[in-house]
Amino acid sequence: MTRSRSYDFVAQTHAIMYYSQRTTKGGFLISEASGISDTAQGYPHTPGIWRKDQMEAWKPIVKAVHEKGGVFFCQLWHAGRVSNYSFQPNGNPPVSCTDKPIHIDVDIGFSDGEGFSPPHRLRVEEISKVVDDFRVAAKHAIEAG
Fold this sequence. Notes:
Elements: H1 14-21, E1 28-30, E2 34-35, H2 52-67, E3 71-73, E4 76-77, E5 95-96, E6 120-121, H3 124-144
Parallel strand pairs: 1-3, 2-4, 5-6
Helix pairs in contact: 1-2, 2-3
């Protein structure tokens, strides 16, 4: 799930209030889906955590939750084939474990007006890059608090 209220893949300051309002002492909050890389995106205006500026943007959000006694968990996310060329670097196909496209009629704001793009099936030697993207994102999530 995502709120689609982040721009340039950075959690916005209004998220501090949003998450703080939903925090209770001992409560467990799971963040909205946060992309692990620029190839992980699948929806408009979603936050990420692969860059340092993204990690820094999450810090005050996590701090606000902790100050109210809550526990915060960052949901690391890769959209896989549930994406579109318009969300991918250089208009490349989304990456996935399969080359089979998704065929459903849904409008989630793709700039080209199309649905989900046919994905690029990762080759074995490409998988380690996605694993490393999760590693970096997890490290940033820990550093964010």
